[in-house]
Each structure stands twice: as C-alpha cells, then as structure tokens.
Amino acid sequence: MNVLVISTSLRPTSNSDALAREFARGAADAGHKAEVVSLRGKKIEFCKGCFACQQTQKCVIKDDAPAIVAKMHDADVIAFATPIYYYEMSGQLKTLLDRANPLYTSDYKFSSIYMLTTAAEDEAFVPGRAVAGLTGWVDCFERAKLAGTVFAGGVNEMGEIEGHKALGEAHEMGKSVGE
Predict the structure, then answer these.
(1) Which runs of consecutive H residues, i.e. helices, occur in 86-149?
(2) Rounded to whole angstroms, what are the CA distances from 138 to 38, 154, 161?
(3) Which end is more exposed in the chain, N or C (fewer Cβ atoms within 10 Å of the end residue's Cβ)?
(4) What is the pLDDT of residue 67?
(5) Cβ atoms 172, 24 nearer than 8 A
C-alpha cells in the first residue's frame, strides 16, 4: 500500500512530527511504501472558492498545495499529524484540506484516513473538535473512512513527546494499516 503521512506542524522537531514519523515507520515495517510530507517551509495559500477545480481537478493557485494534493490522490492511506491549537486542528491542516477540493470530483485512491494529534493539555476530550473537523472532510469522500486516531497529551515544548506512549501507539497503528 502507498501510505502518505502529512505533518502539519511548522515547528522543527515538533511533537506531531514525531508521531508522523512513528506512524510512517510502522507502515514501512509492515511492508508498505510510506512517505512523510511536512508542510514546514511550504507555501500554501487559502482556497479562493472559485470551484474551477471541480471541472478540471486542478487548482488555479500556483503554490505547493497541488503537489501535495496529487500525493493525496494517489495514496491508499493518508495520516494527518497536527498539533492542537485552541482545541482544533492547526490552521495549516485546515487550509490544506480546503485546497484538496480537486479530489472531490476525482477518482482518488485513498480509503483509510488517520489523525495523529498532540497538545499541551492532557484530557481525553482535547482532540475531539479536531477529529470532528477532519471527519467532516472525510465524510465528503464516500470511499473513505476515519480509520483511527492517536492523541499525545501533555506535550508542549519541542521534543517533549520523547518516551510518550502515543509514539508506540502511532507505530502500531501504522503497522496495522490495510488489515
């Protein structure tokens, strides 16, 4: 299987990056082709809402988003890794999901979507709104489903996730894709 992991944190050595790498490592350990794409350093503009992509399956905006969306199109599995900001997914992830609008009318391959989240807060409810936001996107793709989530709470500073149980959970979830 072709597994695409999109890390949306803009911080170097971020906690959600660590989850993304562990998910990808698990998928690779299971024999899948796994690629991690980071949004750090990428130029991704806001969707203009012109809907030209619904006819052409191509966005009119010339930035880094179309190349990432093309990888999403060809992936069997997509995992999104995001820090939780104000109890929601990062703005970078939301902007990418909006820019993935060309996929809606395309013959996309993906069927399993995963969400990997990190936050300073540690309560179980913390990722709920972010997961709900991603579920809204997934629900627009009839062949896709939210296949799993991992939450690493209580991590704020860069690299603070080291030794967190969520790293093992992300690795195991990556190993189980396609089962």
Answers:
(1) 91-99, 128-138
(2) 20, 27, 27
(3) C
(4) 98
(5) no
